[in-house]
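User: Hi! I'm a student and our assignment asks us to look at how structure tokens line up with a sequence. Could you show me two examples?

Assistant: Happy to help. In each example below, the sequence comes first and the structure tokens follow. Example one:
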Amino acid sequence: MPGGVDPRGLSVSVSTSLCALGGEEVAADGTVVRTPYAFMRRWPVVTRRFVFLPVADWRSDSAVWNMVGVNWAFRPEWDGEGVALPCSGVPGVWRVWWRVHGRVREASGRYRRARRLASRGVRDPSAVSEALALMRPELEWLAEGERLNQQHKRQTDRDAVLSERSGC
């Protein structure tokens, strides 16, 4: 095994949920990963055990959003990733599937309009503010997740320093 990690006995705990803007995963250590519906593919995938909400290919859009100044919102871990929900925890899998499809369709429509406006931003500065207004809910939601992660990291670092000082 690479890195000398023994997978026997390895356990991972992640809480996954859906909200109005997308999927949120919270790891056992408190790390938050948010994936907006706007960045997902239109059709969720249902397997025997999971409902998977894959992320669309956003890499080409990243350059457009870099011009606007919000490239920080794009995550390398989204490349080929998505949100996985265990079917056992999803009551009415097909009802949820249709709801997610509708939210992705609506959000990705706004996202496509915002992308077109952002690409016109060089010639028309008002297009940039209009593009940002279309995506503001998602951008604020992602920024809040980043703030939570930074706050959690500061607290974890403080706890480690205190533990080291106390000799525990």
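Example two works the same way, sequence first and then tokens:
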Amino acid sequence: MAPKAWTNLAAAGLIVAAVLAPYRARAIEVKKDLYNNSGPAGPSASGPAKENPIPKAAAQQLSDTIASESDSYLSDESEKKSSGKTYVDLEHAKFLYLPTMKAGHWTVIAKLQAAEYTPSKSGEGKGKPTGKQKILVFNYRLDGSKWTEVDQPKWEDVDAGGTAAAANK
């Protein structure tokens, strides 16, 4: 049991670190990608980069909320791996969030994208990648100073073109 608890704690730490450490840089990159018609490979928009619109305290609270909520999904995937079922490696997930203003409230779609694996017969290591990517999508709204879940988190498949399609998992 100790290794499983350590793995969960380490994964939660990685998720929080991924959210907190490069927080400002990611927000700027996301905004550039969203508002720049030339795309990531093209020239950047002229003028200074815009700051992240969400207050730091609210961003920290969102990070804590996502880390806490994703812990149960991390446990589920760890259980699948230990029982020999195909699993998603959330411990090494890429984090992305997209803040938008809707009806006077900030809403955030946060995504954790990771590769899917078939565990090895010996149960050691990651196993064999299936070649598929899955995204765990969280949707929150900032009501005053509290984040409210808009929708239940859901899994999406990533198609070959890199876009997500809803998955029933």
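Here is something you could point out in your write-up. The beta strands are 87-88, 94-102, 105-118, 128-143, 146-158, 164-166.
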